[in-house]
Amino acid sequence: MTMRAPSIRRGGLLAVLTLGMALIAQPVFAAVKIERVVSPGGIVAWLVREPAVPLVTVEFAFRGGASQDAVDKVGLSQMTAQMLDEGAGELDSRAFQQEMEKSAIELSFRTGQDNFHGTLRTLGAHRAKAFDLLKLALGAPRFDAPELERIRAQTLSGLERETQNPNAIARRRWWEAAFPNHPYGRNSGGTIETVAKITPDDLKGYAKRVFAREYLTVAVVGDIDAPAVGAMLDQVFGGLPAKATLVAVPEAKPQKLGQRIVAELDVPQAVINFGGLGIARKDPDFIPAYIVNHILAGGSFSSRLYTEVREKRGLAYGVSGSLLWYRSAAVFAGSTATRNDRTKETLEIIEAEIKRMAAGGPDADEFAKAKSYLKGSYPLNLDTSSKIASQLVQIQLDDLGIDYIERRDQMIDAVTLDDARRVAKRLLDGGLLVTVVGRPAGLTAKGEGG
Amino acid sequence: MLPTGWHRRRMEVPNRRAEKPLIQNLNVIRVTRMLANMWHAASLAAALVLISANAVSAAPNIAHFTLPNGMEVVVIPDHRTPVVTHMVWYKVGSADEQPGVSGIAHFLEHLMFKGTEKNPAGRFSQLVANLGGQENAFTSNDYTGYFQRVPKAELGKVMDFEADRMTGLVLTDAVVAPELLVVLEEQNQRVANNPGARLGEEMNAALYRNHPYGKPVIGWRHEIEQLGRTQALEFYKRFYAPNNAALVIAGDVTADEVRELALKTYGKVARGPDLGPRRRPQEPASEAPRTATLTDPRVTDPSVQRSYLVPSYATAKPGEAEALDVLAHILGSGSNSRLYRSLVIDKSLAVSAGGWYQGTALDQTKFGVYGSARPGVELAKVEAEIDAVIGTVAAEGITDDELSVARTKLISEAVYAQDSQAALARWYGAAITSGMTVEKTQTWTDRIAKVTADEVRDAARNWLDKRRSVTGYLLKGNAKPAEKRS
Q1: What does DSSP assign to residue B192?
Q2: Phi/psi of residue B59, each to 5°?
Q3: What is the percentage of chain A residues whose pLDDT exceeds 90?
Q4: What would the pLDDT profile of A292-301 be if each residue is shown by its tens digit?
Q5: I need a surface site. Which of A160, B242, B363, B382 has the fewest CB within 10 A?
Q6: Nearest Cβ partner of B352 from A28, A154, A314?
Q7: In a domain, A253, yes or no
């Protein structure tokens, strides 16, 4: 709606946020019943009925996110996401917003590199109105000029701000260097130059190419039954074109491993981004890699990086790493922030820990604890309708199967310590690309072009 | 009552690690609200009238009782998943610190993870991690909280650990020293690296001239640097006791189960000395509007923001805080709000604009408005338009439509909050450690439903008075201009 923080998030973020959930299952959760609903018109959704709370959450994704943006129109996908609730059909922006407010309907859109996402939340009693508005937003967006200019101004303001934000600079420089001449190397929110060029026709073109039934993924959670979901699917999505028109995104691997980029910015605390090769979601080594990452840099407060950088030395408030996966690339990526005078030391510790893990892998004790954590954390991440719905969409996008949640524990249990050691080397032995933003003492660029 | 921006405005400081970027620009604070619950039958009825018939199914009641040693207990049943959120809230925050040791409440919160005699450092965290659970802690002006989210079968264990560290903390200089560095990096990350946050500290200090809310929750950097083991333990021994704490448990439990477990764990901790009422120095009447200007080369869009000193739910006359919540919604929440429509849409003066009210506080609190100038627009014009919008509401009031939409929106957000046990636990925990009661919290939606247009107009008239405010300007420029003396 309003005040949309014009923060430009790259597609990777979605993967990061859902990563924890994408993996983890617990026997208690096998009880959650996922129904596969096929509408009369042939559209599929996964449904979890939850009558205890009078809400309905619809989460969906179309394949084709920011990676579909032309080089001179980067940011188009994100701009489309911001414009979809700014008027549709007969309703101008103000009227559309009023209709949502009157019935307390929450509708939001966002884009990642590979997918365009939407979320609808409504009270059960207002679902008919909510579905009408969603249908309008997707099928008949207006993209009126005054609204476009307003959103453009907000987007440009956010992009300007990012030029002075050490986190944004470190992230951008990393992706630009790692994926040169590839969509994943571009900032999904665009640049000041490309956003300035986006026209209403561009937005219409994007909507037409991407909002189609062909690569649509839907999950519904809440107080609604299968027939009602079927009717909703046909009503909301049935009128969209059958086929999407997508450009292929070439397979890619992060480049410039072994190099370090230093960008000067006058801040007391330097931001460090580091990363290297990842492992694809469908790769049989993915789960061992996920366990290894958890031990090295993962979520609970016990990772090797957390212990060495924060607990023992007090060098940073946070340090972590994740596995990110896209349709056409996989990445290991991490970050921290530390005072300028100890940035060099912090980076050396991180690099040493990554080398140590690559060389020796985890020990038996930390391996067992990591498995226990990864299995147990699943139901904790699925305690709200929104979280469950996001997870059901992610499982479908990753093509893991409707029984994935039930199989997950076994998949984790099946990983041996030898697997983890072998995969630690595969994952972490390829070298790191590092970006540092700040005034790091004694730390200079390394590698070609610096 | 609890905007999500709450974390920042109240400077609630979570302990260990944040998943999301910690630092946002002040101009783009999104004032979404995470509001009251609807478990209560009376609230339910009131809300139904506004939202729609049959929208809300009946839900279990919240249980509220006190252990013999004075520890308050709130149980919020949610049987959808076999998970519990277990929180202990201490009725102490940065506003309870002595002068000169700002940041000690927050530093102690970090040190609470360093182990006890019975459970050495890491054991509690390892238990939670082995379960796949989550844990963290946070500090605000008025409270300090610790939580774990674990499978329901493990609730007794985490209660045992948490009860142990209520009085059993052991600190050595060897663990205290690196943790102080961590907190200084946290201060760098949240404040020093961020011009908007630095201005926020200045504005707060100017708004509260006498009350300790004027100090940052994380502390003034020069005072954080001096903190150590002795001050932390002093603060701990003074404030951490069952009679100064509240246990809030949400999830797949019953009140009876919780009572039994609580008696076996927290119930065994001896009552501490009576701390008496939480009286802080109050603000004098103010006659002069104040300003704070921060220039930094990293600022891109200049922005203006204003904080007014206003009543909180704990200090307001009946209905007044509710009216301020409705006023904040109408003035500043969403793209149909008065400020956004006027500044961003109709007059194209600003790229963003809005307002918020932080109702949850033990003492007088803040109502904020802000606008970020479009390129080429003078900031004075943005400020003048904010003044004009507020002036119109104070003079002419609001429309019935606006009132109705705001009430619906606030009440329905209470329904949405039912979807998250963790959100409900936080909401109740914050309320009862900030001078409110469980009962008042449960009936909040009833009172929102009764707010009238006249009350909203009067709230604007009475409280959005510049003499009660600080206006902050964030400008692009040389960070350290040469001092001028004349």
Answers
A1: I
A2: -135, 160
A3: 88
A4: 999 999 977 8
A5: A160
A6: A154
A7: no
In whole numbers, what is the pLDDT of chain B averaged over residues?
A: 88
CB-CB neighbors (< 8 A) of B79 in chain A: 52
State whether A207 and A60 are in the same domain.
yes
Percent of the residues in chain B that have a pLDDT greater than 70, as a whole number: 86
Of A6, A97, A380, the CB nearest to B336: A97
CA nearest to A386 within chain B: B419
Same domain for A121 and A230, yes or no, is: yes
Residues A178 and A45 in one domain: yes
Tokens of residue B207, six digits: 């708004």
Rounded CA-CA distance B103/B139 in Å is 10
User: pTM to 2 decimals?
Assistant: 0.90
Chain A positions touching B354 (Cβ under 8 A) are 2-3
Per-residue confidence at B221, pLDDT binned at 50, 70, 90? very high
| Domain assignment present for A146 | yes
Q: Which domain CATH number covers A325?
A: 3.30.830.10
Cα(A334)–Cα(A296) distance, integer angstroms: 11
Q: What is the mean pLDDT of residues A382-405?
A: 95
Residue at A330 is within a domain: yes
Return mean pLDDT, chain A: 92
Tell me the pLDDT tens digit for each residue of B232-270.
Answer: 999 999 999 999 999 999 999 999 999 999 999 999 999
Using the 3D structure, point to which of A189, A222, A237 is the last residue of a domain: A237
Mapped onto helix, strand or coil, the DSSP state of residue B426 is helix
Fill in the DSSP letter of residue B187: H
What digits encode the pLDDT tens for the residues A137-153? 999 999 999 999 999 99
Calculate mean pLDDT across residues A417-441: 98
Q: Do residues A310 and A356 share a domain?
A: yes
**Is A75 a member of any domain?**
yes
Nearest to A346 by CA among A441, A217, A248: A441
Q: Which of A237, A270, A287 is the last residue of a domain?
A: A237
Residue B9 reports pLDDT greater than 70: no
> Residue B479 — pLDDT band, cuts 50, 70, 90?
low
Could you list the beta-strand ranges (E) of B13-82: 13-14, 33-34, 63-66, 72-77
**Residue-wise pLDDT tens digits, B260-312:** 999 999 999 999 999 999 999 999 999 999 999 999 999 999 999 999 999 99
User: How far out from the chain centre does Cα A288 lie?
Assistant: 21
Q: Scanning every residue of chain A, which has its alpha carbon at the shortest distance from the alpha carbon of B479?
A: A266
Three-state SS string across chain A, please?
A: CCCCCCCCCCCHHHHHHHHHHHHCCCHHHHHCCCEEEECCCCCEEEEEECCCCCEEEEEEEEECCHHHCCHHHCCHHHHHHHHCCCCECCECHHHHHHHHHHCCCEEEEEECCCEEEEEEEEEHHHHHHHHHHHHHHHHCECCCHHHHHHHHHHHHHHHHHHCCCHHHHHHHHHHHHHCCCCHHHCCCCCCHHHHHHCCHHHHHHHHHHHCCCCCEEEEEEECCCHHHHHHHHHHHHCCCCCCCCCCCCCCCCCCCCCCEEEEECCCCEEEEEEEEECCCCCCCCHHHHHHHHHHHHCCCCCCHHHHHHHHCCCCCCCEEEEEEECCCCEEEEEEEEEEHHHHHHHHHHHHHHHHHHHHHCCCHHHHHHHHHHHHHHHHHCCCCHHHHHHHHHHHHHCCCCCCHHHHHHHHHHCCCHHHHHHHHHHHHCCCCEEEEEECCCCCCCECCCC
> Same domain, yes or no, for A198 and A319?
no
Q: Name A21's Cβ contacts closer than 8 Å, sequence gap at least 6.
A: A378, A381, A382, A387, A390, A391, A394
What is the rounded distance in angstroms from the CA atom of residue B55 to the CA atom of residue B22? 36
Q: Work out how many domains chain A is built from and give that number.
A: 2
Closest residue by Cα to residue B107 from B214, B215, B184, B197: B184
Residue contact A301–B340, C-beta within 8 A: no
